Structures are given as C-alpha cells and as structure tokens.
Amino acid sequence: MALLELNVEQKTVLDMVRDFCRKEIAPVAREMDHRDEYPHEIVEKMKELGFFGFTIPEEYGGIGLDYVTYALVIEEITRHWMSVSGIINSHLIMAYIIEKFGTEDQKRNFLPRLATGEFRGGLALSEAEAGTDVQNMSTKAVRDGDRYIVNGNKMWITNARFGNTFILAAKTNTEVLPPYKGISLFIAQKGHPGFQVQRDIDKLGYKGVKTCEIVFDNYEISANQLIGGEEGKGFKQVLGGLELGRVNVAARGVGLARAAFEDSIRYAQERKTFGKPICEHQAIQLKLGEMGTKLEAARLLTLNAAQKLQRGERCDLEAGMAKLFATEAGFELSAEAMRIHGGYGYTKEFDVERYYRDSPLMLIGEGTNEMQKIIISKGLVEKYKI
User: Fold this and answer.
1) What is the pLDDT of residues 326-342, one digit of tens each?
2) 195 pairs with which residues across the strands?
3) 174 pLDDT tier (thresholds 50, 70, 90)
4) Would you call 175 a catalytic residue per the annotation?
5) Which of 29, 86, 317, 331 could pair covalently with 359 via S-S, beta carbons 3.0-4.6 A apart?
6) Which runs of E-coded beta strand occur in 172-222?
7) Nearest CA-CA partner of 249 in 115, 85, 132, 50
C-alpha cells in the first residue's frame, strides 16, 4: 500500500493539470525559454481554469486545494517548465499571507480577485543588501495620516513586470531593537507613479518569468493595506509565509529532479553504444539507481512537510529538510542527466540544458540551502533537547 492514497477529487485535479501541461506547456516551453518570452497565453488559460486560486479557500472564491495536492500540482507543472510554476507560486504565497494574517476586510477585498488572477503578483521582500538577512532592509514606510509614504528599492522580484499586486516589506520603525521588530507588510499595487518597475534582470535560467528591480519613490499606500492593521508584525508574517514557500520550492525541486530522471531513463533505453542500450552498462545503471532513489526520497520529504502544513502543525523543520534535500536533488539529477545524455544534453535541442540552468535557483531561493542547514540544526536540537 502506498504511503499516500489520493482521493477522487485530488486525482481529478491532478489529471486536469497533467492534461493542461501536456497540451499547453510542453509544446512551447523549449522555444519560449530560449527566447526568454513571458507566457501570456498560458497565463490567461490558467486564469480561466482557476490556477491562481489553487490554495485560496472556497469562501473567498478559490479552489481550496489541500497542500499535498498543491505540492503534487507544482511538481507536475515544474516537470514541464519551472518558470510557469514560479508565476503561480509567488502569487499564492502572497495570498497565503493575506489569508493567514490579513484583516477580514483585506481578505474580502483582495482574495477573490487574487483567485481569479485579476490581481496577480508576488512578494517584494528582497533588496540588494537584504536577501536572507531580511531585517537589514532599508525600504521605509512613514505614516502620514491615513496613508504611508514608501521609499526604497527591491530586487529579484518575480512577476514584477506583468503582475499588479505585491506583498511589500518595509521598515515602519527604524529605532526599535532588534531591527526585525520594525518590519511591517503592506498590500502594494501598481497605478501610482511612485511604483516604478525598473530593469528586467537577465538570469542564467528561470527564463520567461520576469524578475525585476522595483523602485518606490514617495509611493503612497493606504493605511488600510497594512497587513493585519498593526505595525511591526511583518517579520513573523514573512516567516509564516515561508512555510508554504519552502514546500512549494521543495515541490519544484521534485519536479525538476523528476524531469531529469524521466528524460534520462528514457534516453538510456533508446541510446545504444557497443551494441546495446546504455541502460545495460553498469556505469549508467549506477547513475539511474541513485537518481531514482533520490527522486523518491525528495518527494516523500516534500509530501510529509505538506501534510504537516495541511494539519496546521508547525513544520519549519520538515519544510526546511524537504527544501534542502529536494532542491539539491534537482541540482544533482540535472547534472547527472547531462552526463547520461552526453553531447546531446549540452545542446539546446534537448531539455536537459534547461534543467541544468534552472536548478541552481532553488538552492538560493526561499532561503539559501546553507541557511536551511542552520535552521534544521536548531530545530533538531530543540526536538531532541536533553
């Protein structure tokens, strides 16, 4: 018996997503990635099917997927083109933060339109000098009556070019110690001249989805868009959102590892050297055996974290382990896939070179893997405290 048995509803959702990926993403992913072209038509079709409301509760107009199904959905999309999963993931982390920490008015005003994709975007957290070290951010929001005036720069913002709604982190108190207690989150939207999307950042991989720098120059934002209606809670809210973020990045790692493995095991049966398929050579067998094992372990760790998140339990330890192992597996398996494919894997005629370019992002995103190890270690010490 499998460790995880999906119900009819879960299977129906996954079948729908597989069919969508096969028909809409697979035929165009390679060329669009090479052109670094944003998938506008794919996004419109995802809006029609409700993808932008996957994890938003039904009462707010979403589909209300459980997090296990969500992880499997992200794995499936990433297996076909990781950039498409990025368009959805940053958006859904934003929705998760609003659902978990927002006021009831904020939930009712924003979640239904986030679910339809009318409002679409992500997270404006990172800065040039404040990535993993979030509390070092320099963006400031100063209260002025019933509004805040925001000044600062944000870097590496997914969906900045074509999105319109973002979770913005800023310092509302620069004097308090420790500094993280001065961070607040806002729901920021385009339309004001002080919100300026600057250059698109040219990246090694993760093509198609646009990653940009944003400048806030005397940007005015209503005080009723301060998440939760209380200043100084932003750091805790970010950490809450990152639990889902690490599950979805782990799921991306699984999807990429799966793509690399499936392409490799198929190619190994088709490609012949010295009179037999290369899957019959011991050197390739050793690689396939290790790749398949790591893929399975990565998926189980990810689903374990997703199940804990679904039950409402604290899962920072499990999500950290899943993120660490699954993204390292995606990185390692993409490199092994290139070795198995040989010269063909190095060409743009195969998808292996895309997996190889995409995989390093996940070692860095949602907290570097070096930081994950520290978080995991602290969690383990607490769990096994003498």
Assistant:
1) 999 999 999 999 999 99
2) 216
3) very high
4) no
5) 331
6) 183-189, 195-200, 211-222
7) 85
